[in-house]
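User: Reviewer 2 asked us to show a designed sequence for the structure in our supplementary figure. I'm pasting the structure tokens here. Could you produce the per-position amino acids so we can include them in the response letter?
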């Protein structure tokens, strides 16, 4: 580490300035969430002509559920009410088979389920209902939504491999909706394991066991199942070990682009072995993936012309290397990064990254931009993003108040 040559007075002045920044960002996050709240729940981003054209002014399944975590923990009664309203709205438009929508426009009775699966909206909704029920038990949310919870869990179990207890999905079926991750996807299965723990599902340990075998095929384990052994053998012969879990594994191909978000969630939820978490954190910082904005969601973007490149990644010219899901830096993911550091006992590092996260949110006068270009740090995407505000609240409460988010 670089030595700090400032005087004690200078160090104290800097610490005071950082504390003021952190507190101001917290107030701005609360204000943004209040502004984006409607009687039906919180919108993904502030209403403007551009956001309306892209449906960001809707109640998104994953966005509203993720926001509900921070809104419930904020202690603000208005935000708790909005969090509850969003979860109830999504339940109201739940499909008969149990799937939670990608997004809902209640004013138009419009419901969208995306193209194939949109698997994570249902998981995030399950997580949020249980979390809000824990933080605000007086609402009785889990009891009121009990039939919806059963249907959502049943739907997810129907997407699960019946021998390995891992979710299966197509390309573009989760939050990274123009990325070529398919088969067994790390991000989705980290969430699925979290949900299984929250709902005491009996196959949680099986999900964890097979995930570690498949997403980390370089350990010394010798699986009982022949197909798992073959899959691991195929990867080991064509892939070099990294301090990251593979982003996805399919029949004869897998993701080596380094899904930083998926890895963060894997270690937060316990899907990945805690003993490996610090190595992953060190590797993220070695890539400078947390600089200047915490944190880039991909460590090694998929290049145009790569075997993993897909023509649809050029849609809206968004997913070119170092952009959007293919290497952009997303502040809401930065919130999970801060929480992971705090969970691992890295309190000083967590606070330093929280300061960087607040500075990211402050760009352009507290615009809470959707994402930043991974190399230049240029603000991109839609401004006034709700989940950026909500994850800042979660990270702030974790670092400064000792809140516990994950089991």
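Assistant: Here is a per-position design you can include in the supplement:
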């Amino acid at each position: 580490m670089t030595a700090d040559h400032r005087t004690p007075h200078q160090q104290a002045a800097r610490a005071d300035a950082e504390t003021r920044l952190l507190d101001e960002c917290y107030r701005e996050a609360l204000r943004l969430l209040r502004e984006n709240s409607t009687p039906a729940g919180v919108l993904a981003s502030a209403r403007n002509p551009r956001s309306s054209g892209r449906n960001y002014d809707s109640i998104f399944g994953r966005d509203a559920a993720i926001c509900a975590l921070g809104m419930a923990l904020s202690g603000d009664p208005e935000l708790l009410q909005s969090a509850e309203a969003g979860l109830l709205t999504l339940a109201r438009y739940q499909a008969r088979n149990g799937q939670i929508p990608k997004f809902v426009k209640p004013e138009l009775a419009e419901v969208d389920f995306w193209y194939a699966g949109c698997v994570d909206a249902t998981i995030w909704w399950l997580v949020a209902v249980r979390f809000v029920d824990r933080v605000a038990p007086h609402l009785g949310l889990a009891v009121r939504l009990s039939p919806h919870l059963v249907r959502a869990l049943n739907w997810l179990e129907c997407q699960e491999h019946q021998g390995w207890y891992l979710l299966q999905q197509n390309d573009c079926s989760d939050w990274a909706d123009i990325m070529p991750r398919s088969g067994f996807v790390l991000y989705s299965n980290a969430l699925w394991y979290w949900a299984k723990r929250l709902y005491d599902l009996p196959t949680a340990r099986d999900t964890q066991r097979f995930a570690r075998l498949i997403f980390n095929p370089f350990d010394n384990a010798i699986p009982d199942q022949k197909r798992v052994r073959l899959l691991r053998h195929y990867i080991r012969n064509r892939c070099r070990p990294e301090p990251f879990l593979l982003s996805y594994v399919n029949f004869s191909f897998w993701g080596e682009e380094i899904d930083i978000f998926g890895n963060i969630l894997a270690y937060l939820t316990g899907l990945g072995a805690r003993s490996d978490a610090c190595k992953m954190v060190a590797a993220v910082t070695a890539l400078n993936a947390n600089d200047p904005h915490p944190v880039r969601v991909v460590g090694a973007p998929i290049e145009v012309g790569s075997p993993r490149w897909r023509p649809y990644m050029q849609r809206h010219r968004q997913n070119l290397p170092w952009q959007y899901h293919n290497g952009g830096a997303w502040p809401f993911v930065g919130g999970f990064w801060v929480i992971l550091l705090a969970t691992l006992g890295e309190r000083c590092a967590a606070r330093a990254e929280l300061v960087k996260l607040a500075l990211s949110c402050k760009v352009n006068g507290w615009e809470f931009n959707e994402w930043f270009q991974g190399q230049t740090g240029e603000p991109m995407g839609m401004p006034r993003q709700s989940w950026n505000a909500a994850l800042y609240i979660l990270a702030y409460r974790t670092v400064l108040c000792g809140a516990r988010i994950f089991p």
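For the response letter, you might also mention the following. Residues 98 and 151 are 4 Å apart (CA to CA). The two ends are 32 Å apart (CA to CA).
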